[in-house]
Amino acid sequence: MDRENSPARSDSSPENETPHEVGWRFDNSYARLPELLYSRATALRFPGPRLIRLNSSLADDLGLDFRGMDETSLARIFSGQELPPGAEPIAQAYAGHQFGGFTMLGDGRALLLGEQLARDGRRFDIQLKGSGPTPYSRRGDGLAALGPMLREYIISEAMHGLGIPTTRSLAVVTTGAPVYRERTLRGAVLTRVAASHIRVGTFQFVAARRDESALRQLADYTIARHFPEIEQAGLPVEAKYLEFFNEVCRRQARLVSRWQMVGFVHGVMNTDNVSLAGETIDYGPCAFMDSYHAHTVFSSIDEQGRYSYGNQPAIAQWNLARFAESLIPLLAAQPEAAVEIAKESLHQFAADYQEEWLAGMRAKLGLTTPREGDRELVSLLLEWMQDSAVDFTNTFDDLSTRGEFVASPYHDSRFQGWLTSWRKRIGLEQRVFEEAQAMMRQVNPALIPRNHRVEEALAAAESDDLRPFNELLVALRLPFERTESLARFREPGPAGACYRTFCGT
User: Is 272 a catalytic residue?
Assistant: First the structure.
């Protein structure tokens, strides 16, 4: 088992602190919504849960201190064998368009224990993933395997290190029970922490049930929890729900543009994987690009490239259109009027995304003031990168750190012409080149979760060797560090390797 650096114990106690020394402060506000949104459920009994990883820094953020607990007790809590005080486990209901097809879904292998109230008053869902079957399992076993759970831990922590909104992982335990897939695997449970698990698919589920009262209650709850400024604005009812939709669109525009800035391919942008809190959620067949190509796909089942890197903005807009459809009864008294209102907001999403994307690309190139021609400058670079099959992350890192660009692949005349244009563009900002590069180093990561390193860490962990996993985590939490000790984590995988991921989480 690996506990990270233990957090310092706080001497101050928030009001309403429970007497439990760990600091659990559960509320269960979601369970006070209409019962069609969830089902009561409990974790499966496991023969021998064992703690593999505990995220102590995240625990401290949540106001939790586990130092007084032994590993056996921790394993029992994080496998669902014992409940923290105040927890009321439920499985949440939701629907979703999966690769374009609509399905009624729900937490088929996850339990929401409740909402932990942190010291600063923020509310976080605490969810067990892989804890056994629920009423929504649809003949599935409700279990998860160790490799995919550790994968979610790695990638979610990497995203956090990059400053991209994300769910996070508090703990991973093995269950002592096998999981049967193509082969027999070790069972595991991951404890996921999220601002909430309210999704586009949550609203789709209620809309499909044609329960307008429940839909309105869900919308009001989501606004109060994630968009209190809308409630405080005192808008007319229909305007309130429109602003709710608009703010969800704005958050998605920001989120997806930030994925594009680091070459992240989510891989399964179904509507049930769109968090209304604006966080990245569900790290199944995701990965980061090595060589740049707009059509990059990693998921083994995405044969048509629906969720490719370059298609992510369009899919985000498609998903938001499905969200708009679920809100039609709230946007206007007449459905036709509601549809027209939603269409206008969806058009605005495209404009907002383009603005976010171009601003992000300007920062990656050391530019601070918008000028005509910036989009073309970015596009020419990306076209060269794709045609030359150069590494996405390392190219921007080289632009941030190098003084000369003469070696391969930068001796290319096409790149040299672009380089001249870029230097001239920086000069228009009345800053020297080195100043622009200093700014670039703050936004262009040197380290991402290289796919071959992730696979090495997971393979070693299957044999109870957590050293590669721990070393990789340390590196990924310092994505903008450029020290020699971290250099090996910057290297791309073997040239020409075809990397495939699977929906295992």
Answer: yes
